[in-house]
Amino acid sequence: MNLFLLEIKRILKSLSFWIFFVIMCVFMATQLSDSYIIDRPTRDDVTYKTEDDLNYIYPTLLKELVKETELNSFDTYPRGFYRNVSLDDNEINLMKKLIEDLCGTNYEDASTLGIHNIPNRENLENNLKKIDSLLGGGSSYSINRYKNMFGQVPTSYEERIDEYKLMKANGLDESFARYFCDYAGITIFILIYFIPLGVFLKDSNKSISSSIFTKSSSTRKILFTRLWAMAIVTISSILLIFTCYELILVNLYGIELLNPVTAYGLIILWLFPNIVLGISLGSLITILINNILAGVFCFLISFMYIITSSPNISGAYGFSPIIRHNIVGMEKYFLDNFNILLENRIMWFIISLLIALIASIALDKKRVGRL
Do the Cβ atoms of 371 and 362 come closer than 8 Å? Predict the structure, then answer.
């Protein structure tokens, strides 16, 4: 217990933690804005949902593909950065051949007769892989993007009302908590590594070295005590930020329309595995490199992962380490896919512990002078 409290004090005195906290506060304030205002839908509202229906997706996709081919101007985002692609004559002819294979007609009839020849999923995606490869990747026709790009359909007023009623029944702060977690998760994923970096680099101080490299405590105990201390301080600071918004929600809607226990529990479930993952990985790399470049390396890798990951930011759970839910709403989608989210969080938490175990082995070798 004394070691745990010592680590807590050390983290609270760490400049890297306070820089992380300030950046988190500023980022959340600028991104969340007034998104905590959850009004009853009106008939004039326009919202969309992603419909995974080839009868809707395919005609829209084919028309856009033919249009871009005619203009020879394709918008792509390889590695997350915008690029407009123009094909040479041979590539254009190949693109037209791929369109013919896709729609089963001559290229000239693609926009008329072709849109009625709905292919099966396998045939569609096989052709889309070739089309995306021809464009250099990152196009609207990639396997990871086409549903989100061409499957957007307007929601009805009745659907929006049902969604709002479900949000109220479960607590309006729970809906906002998911949106909060989306942005908080991005900041954690990119910057959390600097917290263990700052803490471990302080071990070069003689007074600290005496406690870290003492033989009276096992390496595993030292490492895991430090990890849990950093994780608890970090999640506590994030809950403190959320509390500011929770108080605003209480003022706007009253406690009867909120569910604070569920909202706070969701934040812990959603973000704590990311915190442990980042701290474990940051600790391991810092132990190995023992240089500020460790944080820079993790930052660059994480940033590139964010901008090249799935464009579906309104409800991407799956197996990615970072969960996206960039909307205040989609209550039914969240409930229907909660088990997927839970499996994701458990999986990454276990991976985090394995990384922490590897870090403890590396630290042990460092203590005995073999690393």
Answer: yes
Q: Is 220 left (phi over 0), alpha (psi -120 to 50) or beta?
A: alpha
- Distances in Å between the alpha carbon of 87 and those of 32, 82, 132? 40, 16, 13
Cβ-contact 277, 350 below 8 angstroms: no
Cβ atoms < 10 Å from Cβ of 16: 21
Strand partners, 295: none
- Enclosing H/E stretch for 75: strand 74-76
Distance CA 200, CA 204 (A): 8
15-47 pLDDT tens trace: 999 999 999 999 999 988 888 888 888 888 888
pTM of the model: 0.79
Q: Which of 350, 175, 362 is closest to 272 using CA atoms?
A: 350
Q: In Å, how far from its chain's centre is CA 177? A: 15
Q: How confident is the model at residue 130 (pLDDT cuts 50, 70, 90)?
A: very high
349 three-class SS: helix
74-76 and 152-154: which strand pairing?
unpaired
Question: What is the spatial distance between Cα 80 and Cα 305, in angstroms, rounded to a whole number?
Answer: 9
